[in-house]
Structures are given as C-alpha cells and as structure tokens.
Amino acid sequence: MSQMIRVTLPDGSAREVVRGTTAAQIAADIGPGLAKAALAAKVGGELRDIMRPLEEDTNLSLVTSRDEADALELFRHDYAHVLAEAVQNLFPGTQITFGPSTNDGFYYDFAPTAEHGPFRDDELPLIEEEMRKIIAADLPLTREVWDRDKLIAKWQAEGETFKAEWAAELPAGEELTVYRSGGQEGVGGWMDMCRGPHLASTGKLDPAAFKLTRVSGAYWRGDQKNAQLSRIYGTGWLNKKQLAEHLVRLEEAAKRDHRKIGREMDLFHLQEEAHGSIFWHPKGYRIYRELEAYMRRAIDGAGYQEVKTPQVMDAKQWEQSGHWGKYRENMFVIPDEVPNIEDEGPIVSDGAEWMALKPMNCPAHVLIFRQGMKSYRDLPLRMAEMGCCHRNEPHGALHGIMRVRQFTQDDGHIFCREDQIVEEVRAFCQLLDRVYRELGFEKYSVKLALRPEKRFGTEEMWDKAEAELREAVARAGMANEDYGWEELPGEGAFYAPKLEFHLTDAIGRTWQCGTIQSDRVMPERLDASYIGEDGERHRPVMLHRAILGTYERFIGILIEHFAGRFPTWLAPVQAVVATIVSDADAYAKDAVAQLTAAGIRAESDVRNEKINYKVREHSLAKVPYLLVVGNREAEEGTVAIRTLGQDGQRIMPLAEAIAMLKGEATPPDLRD
Q: For this structure, is 194 an active site residue?
C-alpha cells in the first residue's frame, strides 16, 4: 500500500501527503492563520475531528467559525461533554447518559445518586464555574476506538449502567468510539462514548459564550417506563456577543410566552384532568372561530369540499393504511367491547377487538373518495376537514397549546391525476402564500424533505414525486433565496416526499407549519381508483396538505408573534367604551350597541374607577381600541379614541369612529 495519499482542497488544488497526516497538519502547512482558525475538517463531505488521521485519497475542506452551522454544532456538542465532565467532578457517583446539541444549545441527561436526588436550578451557577475551569485547562479531546466487550466491562466496573446498556445494544458491526478529555495515550482524564466529531481541545470553546438555563425531568431513552433522569439544558454560542443577543431574544420570548399571555388575556387554560387538551375560554375561542371562518373562506374559494369523518376507526383500517405498524405508539387505542362493570375481574377481556382514535384524517378521506365510481373528469377532487385528532404524546413533551394530545388540523387532501400534480401543488403554494401574508407573516422559507431511509414505494416512484414538487415550487416562483429554498435529505414521510413551509415570527424564530406531500402509496394500500379516459382503472395521486398545521399550535404562534396584540379583526374584544363619569353611562351603552350592530366586538366599562385605571387595565388586556367618553362626548356625540401601543388620543364623531373601526375589524380577505 502506498504511503502517500492525494488530498484535494476546495480551490481544486491537490496535495500529496503521507498517509496518517491530519487535517490540522495540512492547515498548518497552508499558513499559521488557518492553523489557528481551523476547528474541524470535512473529509469527503463528512464532518470530522481536525486531529483525525487521513487514510485515503479524499476531498478536504477546513471548517472555521465562518462556517457557522458546522461550528455551532461542534461547539454545542463540546459544551455538552464539558457539562457532563463538570457534573461528575462535582457530584461523584452521578451516571451519564446522552448529551446532544440542539437548535440553540445543548443538554445532557444524568442519573444522580439517590442521596443527592434530582438536580436543581440553584446548582447551575456552581456547574457553570466548573465548566469554565475545564475550558480554561485547555484539555485535549482525543478520539479512541474501543473493543466492544472491553468498553462494556469498563462502563460496568465504573457503575455506568446506562452507557453499558447502550454499548451492548449498538449494531454488531458498528465501530465504538469514545472521546477522552485530558489524560494521555488512553490513560487518565474523563471519557464518554460518542461518535463525535469534537474540537481539538476544550480551550477552543469560549468560556463566556455559554449559559446553563434550566433543569427538567426526562426518561432514559424517552420511555416513561424507564428510569427518570435529570436533564440540564444550556445555550452555547461561538462568542460572547452571540450569547448576549440570544439572551435578549430569550427575554423577549419570555414576555411573549403564549401560556403567560393566555392567562393574562383569559384565553384558555390547561389542567391535569385532561393532559394535553385545551379548555378554551370565550375570548380564546373567539380567536379560534375567527381564524376557522377565515380558513373556511380560503378553502371554499380554492375549490375544496369540506367533509367530516369519524373519530374512531377499527384497527384493521389503520393496519391497511400502514399507520398501525409505523405509528401505533403514538395512537390511543380503544377496546371494541362493553367494559366489565363488576368489581372483580379485568375491565377489558383478552379477546377484545381494538379500535383507535384517529391521529390523522388521511385514511378516512380515502374511504370517502372510494364511495361511488370516480372518473378522470372528476379530478382533481379537493377534500378538506377541520379534523379533530389525537396523538399519544409523552407527558414531558407537552408544551402549552403548542404541543398537545388533542388538536384540530386544517387538513386537506387533493386526489388528482398524474398530469395534474404540478399545477395543484403550484396553486397550493400560492394559496398558502396569500394566507400567511394576510395573517401577518411576511417571511417564510420553503424546504423539500426527501426520501427517508425507511419508506414505502419504489425508487422510481420517489424520483418522480420529488421531481414534481421541485417543478411546482419553481413554477410558483419560490425556488430561490428569497423563499429560503432548501432540500433536506432523509426528512420525508415514510410514504411521500413533502414540502415544508417555515414561518419566521416577529423576533426571528422559525416555525414549521404548512406542508404538502405527494403520496402514491396510500391510494395503493387502500385501493383508491378512478376510471381514466381509456376506460381502465387508475390510481389517483393523493396530495396531503395543511396551511396552518393545527389550529392550537398556530394560535399559540400568533399569540407570541403579536405578543397578544392581535390585529383588530382577530382580537377577541375589538373596542371598549369607557366612561369618565357616571353621567355618560347611558351614552357609553348606546355607543356599544351601535358598534355591535356594525359587527364590531365591543364592551362598555362603566365601573366607578378612575379613567387612568381603566386605560391601564384595558391596555394590559390588549384591547386594540379604547373609546373614552364623558359629559362633553355625550353632548356632542363624539368619542376620544386611544389606540393600543400609541400615545395620545383623537376626538371624532361616533359615526366616524364606527366606520373606521369597521374597516379595521374586517378580515383581510373581505376588504375591498
């Protein structure tokens, strides 16, 4: 075997180097500046440690902080390892499990000793200080390959039962690697089992660019039946400035938290008696109804036919659709028998047939399509449902109204011919664009999620489906940087590739909401067909699509996007008429009657309170318009209008104010 290998750099130049040369050595040969800046290497497109030897001819690019996505991934992974080392230094006997990076930081799951119990938020400053000591020590991070049996024996001997269990279950042919912090030549220091990659040493991290944020509970491998762990979260960045900017965003996000605003505005509540389900209060449900009415007008105008399908269907139907095998753990199953009402014996017998609450609407829509013979002339058939669904999310994963167990989708399915796919997807993209902009979201990005490793269907089927979605986005004018166009390998559904639409909110966060998926599998599995122009049976293509995603989550996004200050047409109370003196009470009530008659959601405030108190209270309640009236206004037929978020007031005739508010209160799709 030759001792020399050929390394090709991004500029096309090539270097002959000795086998076993590291990317760090190549960076040093190029120049001291690059040697200092290089953090890792991409070898044949794979991100690797900069100190890992090169063993064969390859393409090589060096990763610096300018390659922000890769650099952040490395930093956050390393912060997680440093966190684990710090915790074990401070709390001997604590077992380590997993510690991945996240979108804005990292976390690590620990099994504390019984004597210590779960970790607490007030211990985070102490752990942060220990992490900074480890970073300051600039300990080398060394990759080592271990024999499986020896590694398992080591973990067991050290009481690391979770690591030993995981090492034993990894595929037999998989290389087991650990990273050692400190020590030398496989001895000493601290180590963790990890695929990597990592930075060359802990000193590459910025000790002022991370912060531990909170502690929560977690379960080993995400299963509630397993041991409960302590999860420590942190946020990590490349430098102090990025951290400071992120903390400001977090502070703003806390002010906008939909749970906090929901309580303040009396929109909804949640409680343990109905885990993951929402109790909508009148004001919150008003927002829901206005949004639902808006979406109905949108889909009616786009040629959809609305349907309603059963909540519960036989398990055999879910088996046929493929969901029972791939999605059953997230479904609520129900025995199809009368439960035992006696005090003794099981509630359900061993022989019970099973049904399930629907986690999605798709199979039921196919069953509607199958009723009666369909012709090619009937297509496309656009079917929509405001469908209530249930998914068995773990308790720890639930989050306000953003992630729930019971939800309603703005669901739709388009059954079409092969030659109609591109045009139907293009039309959907333009419908979604109009809806997002009218709802106040000017910026969003479009992603194409490609075939996953585990999937139904042939390669030819996937090639065709992916190409059609690409073409449709191009025809809609969205396959460009303005729409953040990007392809995501491996992230499609098991039955179809999909387009994802990611909103950007007022403080720069992104939310994946809309989607459309091109599916040839489910019509085949559920035997959907139509009669073609040739008189033969053909399979329709099924386009699964949603614009909002779910009403619950989207309303949560709206609350945080607008910080509760909804546009007037969506606000639960659009105007309050508040009196300065009791002599104006009758005029205030008459004004409310006129506002209500004009279709404006208005209330009066005739309490015996000072006007400044009323102004402050209704501002906190996020009422868009406050109409203040006293003796003069009653005599002249005027109102003093205060607009939420603006200083001062305007005096105008009541009729003029009603006309102005009526325009503001009109949904955007109904305005001239």
A: no
